[in-house]
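Hey, quick one: can you model this chain's 3D structure?
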Amino acid sequence: MLLAALDDWYLYGCAVTDIDFIKTFFLQIQNRLGESLDVKRVQASPVLLEIIRRYCGLKISWPFRDTTRPRFGKYYFVGEEYDIARIDYLSLNAPVSPYDAVFVSLSSFFENREELDKGNRMVGALIEEFCHGYQ
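Sure thing. Here's the predicted structure for all 135 residues.
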């Protein structure tokens, strides 16, 4: 599906190497639909391929990217050491997002609950749009 949707080699590379980002998107969709996706059906739909393109495009255009430290997806680096960055939902007074793996993969940092809610709506809208287009 990614090959059919992405003709930009850079964006394809960003998406295909981030299994959590891709798995979470399709898992959320399959859970909402209550069935596995038919790959050929998705590949034959320009609408669904465009939604996948827009979702993967978040890798480039995500407005809540953490720019305070050297980061690559969910990893941040201190010298030659690295660790996994986590979102501090407690400080945001919020439950863990169902899109946590997506947010971490996008190197997210939310200043406040409103930003988190906006991020949830952005990802949720793409998932809902895909489900609607698939049905």
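One thing worth noting: The mean pLDDT is 91.
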